[in-house]
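Homework help board

Subject: predicted structure for assignment chain

Our instructor gave us this sequence and asked us to write out the predicted structure in token form, then describe one feature. I got the tokens but I'm not sure how to describe them. Can anyone check?
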Amino acid sequence: MNPSNSTPIHPFHPAQITFPTFTTLLAHYPATVEARARRKATDKILRPRGKKQSKAPASAPAPDRSEPTPAQRAQIQAEVDEILDLDAFRYEVLPGRVRERERADYGEEGGHGHGYLEKEELVKLVQWKMKHGIFRPALLGLIRSNPDSLVKTATARAFTLLASEAKDSDSSFPTQSLDALIKPLRGVGVATASLVLGLSGRVPFYSDDVYLWVCLGEWRSEGGIDGDGVVEERVRKGVYKRGNGELDVKYNLGEYRGLWEGGWGLRGRLGEVQWTEVERVALVVRYGDENEKEEQSKKGGKRKQDDTTPTTTTARRRSKRLQR
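My token output:
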């Protein structure tokens, strides 16, 4: 979409966002991911036992919760700490290990210099994925069923193929490297394969947050979901499930290719931004107001709005939906 179109576009729109706004949102990530983790942990621990609750749409108000006991507060904090530890593992520890193995492997006879993952590292990476997104208990069992040696050889081959695919162009779609993970490894689909390859810094992770922002032009404001389409329209088109508002996409190669193309367009316009930065900004765009609301509830004051905070609500007309 052309930002110069006469229809006003929100400053968070992926076709309009500026580098200063992008970096401002990126700075909100640590507080946003912690607020998100605390909200999820609190909902989980304070939910009445034996009462099954459907997931509310992203636009629904937060459920009322009673004041937690000291024991519950400690339990909530333990869950938050676990998520933050997994976050550091995903963004700092594991990419560093892959780079170290790449350097070491490059010096070995026959080595290709592209790193690999151990089985327990893949398990922990998928744990991070489930903590950030939709929890699927069967997935972790499938991941654990893969032999240690297969995880190492499959990931090593995938990183090697990815480097080869990137020789012609960094923006070459990584079909072969995705297949090298999806075909041999149980529990690894397109989204998980993209997460593994994303450790190299060359590939975007197919997260719900990135898909909703880059492909569907969606962000969050005080009134709930905002952007190129309202929730009801997305339900009608099958993006969200009826009843619980859960995202209902297929996580297939076609959708990932749309995310790939949209992400490269965003990076090409903004300049020197990394895929992991796009991923973190997308989470802030989707959930940033959770942190703002938590802070305001503590202060008991009213937040001042501007165009560079995750909760901006303006009188701008909604723009047309981005094409995948």
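Reply (TA_rk): Your tokens look well-formed. For the description, you could write something like this. The first strand starts at residue 218 and ends at 221. That's the kind of observation they're looking for.
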